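Quick start: what a row looks like.
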Amino acid sequence: MNAVRLIVNPVSGRGRGARVAEQVSRLLHDRGLPHELCLSQSPADPTELAREAVRNHVELVVGIGGDGLINQIANELVGSEIALGIIPVGVGNDFARGLGIPLGVDEACAVVAQGQQQRVDVGKVNERYFFSVAVMGLAAQVNRRANRFQRARVSALYSALTVASVLLDTPQSFTLEYDGRTRRCYSWLIAVANTWSCGRGMALVPAARADDGVLDACIVNGMGKLELLYTFPRVFRGRHIYHTGIDTLRGQTMTISTDTACDLYADGEHIGPLPAVLSAVPRALKVMVPHQF
């Protein structure tokens, strides 16, 4: 049994995963990292391959794919001594962005082979782990609509769907309890983040870091639709948080509820309806990251 296992989604990144697998294998061999290469054949395969790696005490599991595959693998490695390596060849690659992992294949392989192992925080919502951002309200509706376009998840799509969702939807009343405090707000959306990147590099919660032991939240309050659309472009650089209609907060645990129907999405996947309890799980996952992390 090799000490390193590569798990590849051959159809990630519109088929790029299969093309990149051989390149990654060659680069890691050249860097003195022998390994076994495992191609997933079904949606459940990455989970089972990662679970098997835990049972066999593999030292490093490298995911070659997008956020979906990385999420499946990371869920199995949480709480273990096995490190996660990330070669981001999906469309969004938000967890990699949030950890500062390069998006280029050569550079990402260098991090896997020569970077540092770092224990990072993960988020937990209703007994499920998430690694980037959980959203509700307007952003959840954008996620729901974007999931209908699996092969076209680009920034322009998210921008177009955000505009459409603003025109179609309305703010909601939320109750947020965090670290002994209670806040009630009439808001377009609430985003709770472990790392800063979502929607292919949007800095919706720009202060979120995976090494501080807390979750960060961004609350977009019930401003007018034209004002919201005017503010939206600033999200790409995280400048929206300076708008007077937007608040930020942080806490180790957050409970969020609403009086009307509202779904929660985390890392782009549907979790379920509110209410929900979200918490930070400090230093729960070992990851290969750049030395400047």
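That is the whole record. Residues 97 and 204 are 13 Å apart (CA to CA). The longest strand covers residues 276-289.
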